[in-house]
Amino acid sequence: MSKVQCDWYSPTRLSSPSQYDFPGDRFIPNRSLMDLDQAQSLLTNRTRRVQNTEFNELYRQKVEEKLTLDSEGRPFRMLVFRGSPKSCRKSIRHIDEMREEEALALENNTKPNTFRRLPKKEARILDAPNLRNDFYLNAMDWGKNNVLAVALGSELYLWNSENGKVSKLLQVSEGDYITSVAWSEDAKFVAVGYMHSKLQLWDAETSKLVRVLEGHNRRVATVAWNSHTLTSGSQDHSIINHDVKAGNDLICRVQAHTEEVCGLKWSRTGNVLASGGNENHIYIWDFKKMSSCNFLYCFNEHRAAVKALAWCPYQSDVLASGGGTKDGCIKIWNAQRGTCISSIDTEAQVCGLEWNRHHKELLSGHGFSTSEHQNQLCLWKYPSMTKVGDLKRHASRILHLSQSPDGLTVVSAGADETLRFWEVFGPRNTDTSGVSDLDNLLSLKISPIR
């Protein structure tokens, strides 16, 4: 035990303070080191001290020493601020440590019992003759009605994944072809963009043309729905919002990109739009402020065209983007703060991105590369962005990705004119209703009392 100096009750005078911890504070010391009986007596005794003349000074000094020294002759003070040897007491568990342990335990409990691994091969392969080998197009979409729409040259086909039936919705006149396809949110209509600047709305059930939307003068490479608002991006560098329920459908037209707009994605909440262009930029737009042509952020860290865009399903402000051949990077952005969270070099052209809604993962489809990473699918864990594995079955570059309504199957369209279906996102978590439930449960552990 360390020896202390005469005024040992002062914490600055401890000969080896590192061997002690101080669980109290300046005014509320450790009660285990106090003589509470004596404290109670001194605090409640209202009588004045009266000196008895029969006792001399020496006697009073001896009595005082008995009252102020402990049994071993060391000074004793009330309300002393001192610690106890660390070896003599258990460490105090702080709130943060408890929360970390609870979060870890909850995370372990929410892990699925089934071991996650990639399938060795595709679940189904369909021929896709005349699928155009063009990086900038967006010619495939899987609707909530479980019907896949895919443009094969001048024709648009619908494939019903429940019964396997195939039907042709439309055929374009000679000299033109389909450049973009997107199902409406209720899966009643298909928006179709064309090489010669047309934008049409088709009824999938009756196979009839509903209306023609004007505004572009060059090819419409990408379209995206936000409720009854249809957004289109074109080679004329412009983005147009159309209200398909209004007689005068054009809501606003904005132009920030300096080259072709090849990627459009609305956030899940529908209030933020991400647009990617051939000049390597990503623009973030507030839906309510688009008419003023003012964007929220411009991300310019990619070194090639940005077609692949995907909003995270369990973090609404997180956006994933992929760059073309000269870039090959997947970047994760915080669209609320306008910052890049992470970036990885895939060493291959990024043509498509799809988030796994059942596990925290991101799937990427790749094209051209000078390395072995070309023409493959890669699965990444989020947020670490470590690779889970890859799938190499396409003979040519992967051009498009889309996932089924239940979020378990992903279809990839390749320049080898095949559609390959992958059961890569299953199985579902069996003990939780979704990935976001973990974040909700953890939020309940946060206490305002610190």
UniProtKB/TrEMBL annotation:
<keyword id="KW-0131">Cell cycle</keyword>
<feature type="repeat" description="WD">
    <location>
        <begin position="171"/>
        <end position="212"/>
    </location>
</feature>
<keyword id="KW-0677">Repeat</keyword>
<dbReference type="InterPro" id="IPR001680">
    <property type="entry name" value="WD40_rpt"/>
</dbReference>
<dbReference type="InterPro" id="IPR036322">
    <property type="entry name" value="WD40_repeat_dom_sf"/>
</dbReference>
<dbReference type="GO" id="GO:0010997">
    <property type="term" value="F:anaphase-promoting complex binding"/>
</dbReference>
<keyword id="KW-0853">WD repeat</keyword>
<protein>
    <submittedName>
        <fullName>Cell division cycle 20.2, cofactor of APC complex-like</fullName>
    </submittedName>
</protein>
<dbReference type="InterPro" id="IPR019775">
    <property type="entry name" value="WD40_repeat_CS"/>
</dbReference>
<dbReference type="InterPro" id="IPR056150">
    <property type="entry name" value="WD40_CDC20-Fz"/>
</dbReference>
<keyword id="KW-0132">Cell division</keyword>
<feature type="repeat" description="WD">
    <location>
        <begin position="391"/>
        <end position="424"/>
    </location>
</feature>
<feature type="domain" description="CDC20/Fizzy WD40">
    <location>
        <begin position="126"/>
        <end position="422"/>
    </location>
</feature>
<comment type="similarity">
    <text>Belongs to the WD repeat CDC20/Fizzy family.</text>
</comment>
<dbReference type="GO" id="GO:0051301">
    <property type="term" value="P:cell division"/>
</dbReference>
<dbReference type="InterPro" id="IPR015943">
    <property type="entry name" value="WD40/YVTN_repeat-like_dom_sf"/>
</dbReference>
<dbReference type="GO" id="GO:0031145">
    <property type="term" value="P:anaphase-promoting complex-dependent catabolic process"/>
</dbReference>
<feature type="repeat" description="WD">
    <location>
        <begin position="254"/>
        <end position="288"/>
    </location>
</feature>
<keyword id="KW-0498">Mitosis</keyword>
<dbReference type="GO" id="GO:1990757">
    <property type="term" value="F:ubiquitin ligase activator activity"/>
</dbReference>
<dbReference type="GO" id="GO:1905786">
    <property type="term" value="P:positive regulation of anaphase-promoting complex-dependent catabolic process"/>
</dbReference>
<dbReference type="Pfam" id="PF24807">
    <property type="entry name" value="WD40_CDC20-Fz"/>
</dbReference>
<dbReference type="GO" id="GO:0005680">
    <property type="term" value="C:anaphase-promoting complex"/>
</dbReference>
<dbReference type="InterPro" id="IPR033010">
    <property type="entry name" value="Cdc20/Fizzy"/>
</dbReference>
